[in-house]
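ARCHIVE CARD
Drawer: 12
Card no.: 0347
Subject: one protein chain, sequence and derived structure
Cross-reference: see card 0346
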Amino acid sequence: MVSGRLVVMRSSSGASEDWGEFAFVALPSPGDRIMARRDGIENYATVLAIHHAPALAGSEDVPTIEVVARWTGAGGKLR
C-alpha cells in the first residue's frame, strides 16, 4: 500500500481541491482512472500527474506522494 495526498481539479479554471490522504494499492500512473469516496459519494477522476519525493533508504525521512487528478463525475452509475 502507498498513501499520498489526493489533489483534484474540478473546474476548467484549474482550481484544485486537497481531498486529503488516501491509501492506494500501488502508485497510480497518469491516465489511470481512480475512484475516491468523499462525503459518502463515489467520485471518479483521471490521474494527470504524480509528484513524489522519495526518501533515502535507511534514513528517517518519509517519502511523500501527491496524486493530481481531474474530476470526471460522481455516483455509482459511472461504475
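Annotation on reverse: Residues 2-78 form one domain. The CA atoms of residues 32 and 65 lie 16 Å apart.
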